[in-house]
Write a structure and sequence with these properties.
Helices cover about 50% and strands about 25% of the residues. The chain is built from five helices and nine strands; from the N terminus they run E-E-E-E-E-E-E-E-H-E-H-H-H-H. The protein is elongated, with a radius of gyration of 42 Å. It is found in: Endoplasmic reticulum membrane.
């Protein structure tokens, strides 16, 4: 009696492709879909069990659901002249109602209840162009500091000049802003002096000349000291910026 047709949908259907290099584990994915309204048990078998690791290699797929099976090929010495004879078989069966022991179900299954699909394995090595591209990509991503330095030294002078010009432009804008700040502080200092003069004259005409004059002078001195400190800090900043511009010009 012929076995029933496979109810699971396999992706891919006929061939598992493993793309080298094979110096490390290479993984291919097999998708199993259950389009029926019954639970389906499955097992994945291979003719070379020592060469592959399959996760999961068995299980139950609910109605309308899918399972991704990872087939991991272990590292080996690849020979392009040797064709792969490895094969995989996906075995399935409709799960009995009220199933509790899946292993027992497989042992008691009748041959006419089992369905299977077979897939062959194909090994592919990257093309030479792909290898060259990957090598160039790796060199770009993992360049050593010395190589980066040499690349920067070979940049056109116009490129480095444009970078310096950009930095100088930012510094000049900062200088203009600082000049405006100094001008504002000078105006503020001038206004404070005028206000102190008016206040001093009013106090002199209204109260004790000696005590009022002393307090006004003390207040004026404190404000002048604060403003002088800020102007001194700005002057120092101007000096530092001038040094930076001089170095960039060199």
């Amino acid at each position: 009696m012929a076995r029933p047709e496979q109810v699971l949908v396999l992706e891919p259907q006929h061939e598992l492709k493993f793309r080298g290099p094979f110096t490390d584990v290479v993984t291919a994915t097999l998708k199993l879909t259950n389009p029926t309204d019954r639970n389906v048990c499955f097992k994945v078998k291979t003719t070379a069990p020592r060469r592959y690791c399959v996760r999961p290699n068995s299980g139950v797929i609910d109605p309308g659901n899918s399972v991704n099976v990872s087939v991991m090929l272990q590292p080996f010495d690849y020979d392009p002249n040797e064709k792969s004879k490895h094969k995989f078989m996906v075995q399935s069966m409709l799960a009995p109602y009220g199933m509790t022991d899946m292993e027992g179900v497989w042992k008691e299954a009748k041959p006419e209840e089992l369905m299977d699909s077979k897939l062959r394995c194909a090994f592919e090595m990257p093309l030479e162009n792909d290898k060259t591209h990957e090598s160039e990509t790796n060199q770009t991503e993992y360049s050593s500091p010395s190589s980066v330095k040499s690349e920067l030294s070979t940049l056109p002078k116009s490129a480095s000049a444009s970078l310096d010009d950009g930095e100088v432009k930012k510094i000049m804008e900062e200088c203009k802003r600082l000049q405006m700040e100094v001008h504002r502080l000078r105006e503020e200092n001038k206004q404070i002096r005028e206000d102190d003069g008016l206040r001093k004259r009013k106090v002199t005409s209204m109260g004790s000349p000696h005590s009022s004059s002393s307090s006004a002078m003390a207040t004026s001195a404190m404000r002048d000291e604060g403003l002088s400190t800020r102007i001194l800090a700005l002057c120092v900043l101007f000096f530092v910026i001038g040094v930076i511009i001089g170095k960039l010009a060199l």
